[in-house]
Amino acid sequence: MDPAIHGVNSFIKKFNLSNYSLTSQILIINLLTAIIGLFFLIIFNFYLIYNDQSIDGQINDNKKTIIQITDYLEKGAILRVRLFNEACEESINKNLNLENQKKYDNKKCEDVILSEPQLDPTITQKYIEQNYLHKNIAVKIFNNTSIKYADTLEMYKSSDVVEIEIENIKEQNNYYILYKNLYLDLFKTIQDFFIKRKLKSYFINYKDDLFVVKETIEKELRLTELYLDSENNINQIISNPILKNNSVYGVVLISSILNQNVNQIFNTSFNLINLYFVIIFIMFLSSVFFSRSLVSPIKLLSRITRFEREKINRRNYNFIYPKRKDEIGILGKDIFSMSQDLKKRIDDLENFAGDVSHELKNPLSSLKSSSELLIQNKITENNKHLLIKNMIKDIERMNILISDISNYTLTQVEISEEALEKIELINFLYEFKNSLSSRNLIQIINDEKEIYIKVNKNKFIRVLHNLLDNAFSLTNLNSRVLMNITIKHNECLIHIVDQGPGISLEYNEKIFERFYTDRDKHKNKHSGLGLCISRNIIDSFDGNLKLIKSTYSGFDGACFEIKLPLKDLKKI
C-alpha cells in the first residue's frame, strides 16, 4: 500500500506548479483560467439555446395570424354573388316589337337572382396582398373545393429587386465579416441540432398542401404540423377552416421556417465570445508584462544572493537592489539588511577573533616566561613567590576573559533568538532595585506613572547590572547611583549617573569597544566586554546606549543614557 501511495504522490508532484519557472506558472494559470472561462462560456451558450423562446414565439404568432386572417375572411369575404337572369336574356333574343319587348323585359328582368354564399376571391386576394405580402410567412387561401385563391409566394414582391452596394461586396473580403459568418454558421449548426432534438417527437412526414387542405375541410378543425423540408429546415404549417353557419367555405394555410432567425441570441453569444477573447488577450498581455516585472527582479535578487554566498568580489562589487514599493522591494530590503548584518557579523567575528587572540596572548606570554624562569631555577625564593603570584593573576585574568568571551558569544546568539515583550518600566525598575543588596544606594526619579517599552527582560536586567556594576566599581564605598526616567519625543530616556570621578567624553565611543578598560587598579577583574555587550543588547531593542555629560547636582560621575522607543498602551 505504501509504495502505491508513494507512486501517486510522485505522480502528483510532477504536476506541481513549483516545478516550473514563474513565467511558466503564470502562463499555465492563465491557460487554465482561459479554459475554465471557455467552459463556462459554452455552458452559457447552451443555456441560451435551451431557453430560447423564439421558436415558441413564432408558433404562437403564426397561430394568432391565422386566427386573424380567418376572422376577417369569415366576416368580410363570404358573399352571395349576383347571377345572370337567363329568362331576361331569352326575351331579348326573340323577334318581338320594341314596345312589347320593353314591357316584357321590365317584367322579367326586375327579378334579381343571387348565388349561394361563397368565398370571394377578389376580396381575399386584396386583403392578403395588402397585409401579408412582405411578411416572413407564406399565406395560402383555398376555397371549399381546394381551388387556390391567394398565395403570397406567387405574388409579385417589390422587395425582390435589391440594390447591392459596392461596399457590401467589399465587405465580403473583410476578415471580421468572415469570422462573424463562420461563427454564425457554427452557432446555427449547434442551435439546429438542439432544436431538432427538442422537437423531434413532433415531426411528421409532410405530403403536400392539398392533403392538409382536404383533411382540414373534412375535420373542420385547425391543424398544426412540424416537418423538415428538403433543405433540412424546420417548417411549421397551420391550416384553419373558414367557417360560417357551420359550413366550410375555404381553408387558410400558413407555413414558415422556424429556425431561420437566430439573430437575437446569436448577437448575445457573438458579443460574449468577442468579450471573452478581448479579456483573454488583455490577461495574457498583462501577464507577459507582469511576469517580466516580477521575474527580472527576483532573478536579480537570486544573482545577488549567489554572489554574496560565493563571495565573488563581495567587497568591491556594488550590488544594485531593486527599488520597489511592493513585496519584491520589501524582500530586496530584507535581503540587503540580512546581507549587511551578515557582513557585519563576519567582520565582527574576524575582529573579535583578533581581539581574543591578542587578549589571550598577553597572559599566555607572561605565563610562558614565568614557567621558563621557574624551570631554569635561577631566581631567589622571594622572586619565585612574586612570580607565582603573577602567574595566578594571569590565570585569573584568562579565566575572566574566557568566561566573558563565552558570555559575549552566547549573548550575541541570544539577541537574535529571544523574543521581546512589553513591560511597564517604572514598576519593573522598582522591582529590580528591591532585588539588589545595594538597593539603599540607588535613587530612582520619575515624573511618569506608567511607561511601556518592548524589551527582553533578562537581557535588559543584564544591561542594568553591567551599568550599576560599572558605576559602583568606580566610586567610593556608600556612594549613590541615580536613575532618572523621562519621556522625550516619544522615546523613553533612562539616565544612570554615579558619584565617581567620571569618564572623559573623548572616550565616549572607545569605552564600548571590546576588551577596552581604563581600570588599572581592577584590570584583572574586568575583561572590558561589559559595556560592549550592553550596547549590543540595547541596539537589539531598537534603542541606543551612550555616554553623556552629567547635568545632575551631586552626581558628577559617569552618566550613561539608555534611549528606548515607547509602546502605545492601547496596542498592548
Uncertain residue segments? none
Task: Report the average pLDDT across residues.
Answer: 79
Give the N-terminus to C-terminus distance in angstroms.
52 Å
Structural class: alpha+beta
Strand count, sense and barrel status of the largest sheet are: 5 strands, antiparallel
Task: Determine the number of helices (DSSP H or I, runs of at least 4 residues).
Answer: 15
As a percent range, the share of strand residues is 15-25%
Number of separate strands: 16
**Helix share bin:** 40-55%
Computed CA radius of gyration, to the nearest angstrom: 56 Å
**Biggest sheet strand line-up:** 6-5-9-8-7
Large-scale geometry: rod-shaped
If you had to describe this structure to a student in words, what would you say it looks like?
- The protein has 15 helices and 16 strands.
- The chain has a 5-stranded antiparallel sheet, sandwiched between helices. Strands 11-13-14-16-15 form a 5-stranded mixed sheet.
- A hairpin with a 2-residue loop joins strand 8 and strand 9.
- Helix 11 (327-376) packs antiparallel against helix 12 (381-417) and helix 14 (457-473) runs antiparallel to helix 15.
- Helix content is 55%, strand content 15%.
- With 572 residues, it is α+β, with helices and mostly antiparallel strands.
Question: Secondary-structure map with pairings?
Answer:
Elements: H1 2-14, H2 22-50, H3 54-76, E1 78-79, E2 82-83, H4 86-93, H5 98-109, E3 113-114, E4 118-119, H6 121-132, E5 138-143, E6 148-151, H7 166-171, H8 175-199, H9 209-219, E7 223-228, E8 234-244, E9 247-257, H10 263-310, H11 327-376, H12 381-417, E10 421-424, H13 425-434, E11 442-446, E12 452-455, H14 457-473, E13 481-488, E14 491-498, H15 530-540, E15 544-548, E16 559-565
Parallel strand pairs: 11-13
Antiparallel strand pairs: 1-4, 2-3, 5-6, 5-9, 7-8, 8-9, 10-12, 13-14, 14-16, 15-16
